[in-house]
Amino acid sequence: MQKARILQQGSIHCFPVGLRDEQGKLANAEVSAVMYDGERLLLASDKPIPGEHRSAVFALPMTDDGPDDSQLEYFTTPLIKRAVKYEDFALTADGKHVLATTGFDRIDDVTHDLNAYNHLLIWPLGEPEKVQAVDPDPRDGVEGSLELRNKLNHAIGLPYYKIEGLAAVPGELGDGLLLFGVREQGQRHDDFAYVSRVVGAHYVVNASGNLEFIDELRELYAFEPTEHEGVAIECGLSSLEYDPYHHRLYLMTSFETEVDNVARIGGYLWLMELDNLTTGEPPALILGMDGTPFEFEHKAEGLAVLDHERVFVVYDNDREMGVGSIDERDERHASEALYTLLHME
Questions:
Q1: Bridge partners of 3?
Q2: What CATH number does residue 56 fall under?
Q3: Per residue in 140-165, pLDDT tens?
Q4: Which one-letter DSSP state was computed for residue 143?
Q5: Sign of the CA dihedral 215, 217, 219, 221?
Q6: What's 324's DSSP letter?
Q7: Long-range CB contacts (< 8 A, 24+ apart) of 132-138?
Q8: Residue 329 and residue 323: Cα distance in Å, rounded?
Q9: Which is the most buried residue in 25, 163, 248, 335, by most CB within 10 A?
Q10: Domain assignment of residue 86, given as a range
């Protein structure tokens, strides 16, 4: 069984302490996505970060001592700034393009006021200024990946859903298979169930550098975390990550609940071979060094494979300010995001 050992934990300063938005509300770092390009971590908050020269997407070097937030760079290309509620990143299967998805959890078909929540973006690695929207609405002046939303509607089959995972893996057709992880689904935003479900389709990256789907978006995989004897709390899928070093897929699930009237957050890490997408076999739960299930003490939302043995996890604790065992302090600054660096044994 695969085990995980904590190498390092800490926090990343995502913006200046005390930063407030135009309404005077304190900005809160809610980092929900991370990927690694070989030198830098690319991170995104699912809440906007105020300031013309800032955005919810930013990068910083990953050094031997950990992430270096003194060299943080915001991605301020207008399309990247306009998209709202980023949930996951992925590299295309060939490693040449970055993909970023928002949650697709709300839409207003009449006013288009909520189109910012419905984006799949692509840009060449290291060139965010060349960003494009995937599967855009064909109508002039209507922003968002609304054609993709129609495909997600059909594949998921329910009026409400939230996308929180994204991964591109080698596939039988085209340039690979793009996977979307579904965390919530139901009739409405206040009437849903947590799920761990994957839908996807094969794709190509065309001559203009945009992504095109070449077959139908459809359900590819699903599992129920609580069917594992080590998981007793209802979870939803919070991230997908392809491991190109071992040709396998990480899945992360997280929870936010109450136990005996006390709020509790956390998460679990899972691993599976790509063949499981065909066989339907459930993923393996990652264990701690003591042989029991490895349970994150914070709401694990983003995962990046760094190399053959290390993975980097970021947490989106929403308005929960406690730091737990990550730091000697009782609370984080609202501008900080917590992280854990794991060694996979």
A1: 287
A2: 2.115.10
A3: 778 899 999 999 999 999 999 999 99
A4: -
A5: positive
A6: G
A7: 132/79, 132/208, 132/209, 132/210, 133/79, 134/99, 134/210, 134/211, 135/211, 135/213
A8: 7
A9: 163
A10: 4-344
Report the number of distinct structural domains present in the chain: 1
In tens, the pLDDT along 52-65 reads: 999 999 999 999 99
pTM: 0.96
pLDDT for res 290:
96
Cβ distance 103 to 47 under 8 Å?
Answer: no
Q: What are the distances in angstroms from CA 32 to CA 200, 220, 247?
A: 21, 23, 24
Strand stretches in 14-72, DSSP E: 31-36, 40-45, 57-63, 66-67
Q: Is the pLDDT of residue 222 over 80?
A: yes
Distance CA 118, CA 83 (A): 8
Q: CB pairs under 8 A, 24+ apart, for 152-159?
A: 152/104, 152/180, 152/199, 152/217, 154/217, 155/199, 155/216, 155/217, 155/218, 155/219, 156/182, 156/185, 156/197, 156/199, 156/219, 158/185, 158/186, 158/187, 159/187, 159/188
The whole-angstrom separation of Cα 74 and Cα 124 is 16
Number of H helices, E strands in the chain: 3, 23
Percentages (nearest 5) of helix, strand, coil residues in the chain: 10, 45, 45
Contact 286, 342 (CB under 8 A): no
Phi, psi of 324 (to 5 degrees): 60, -135
Cβ atoms 55, 42 nearer than 8 A: no
Partner residues linked to 102 by β-bridges: 86
Mean pLDDT of 235-261: 94
Confidence of residue 237 (pLDDT cuts 50, 70, 90): very high
Residues whose CB is less than 8 angstroms from the CB of residue 96 and which lie 6 or more positions away in sequence, other chains included:
124, 125, 205
- Where would I find the H helices in 127-255? 146-156
Structure token digits, residue 245: 């070093």
Distance CA 283, CA 48 (A): 34
Answer for the pair 277, 234: CB distance below 8 angstroms, yes or no.
Answer: no
The backbone torsions φ and ψ at residue 45, rounded to the nearest 5 degrees and listed phi first, read -95, 145
- Residue 131 is encoded by which pair of tokens? 């960003």
Residues 6+ apart with CB under 8 A from 11: 323, 326, 327, 332, 336, 337, 338, 339
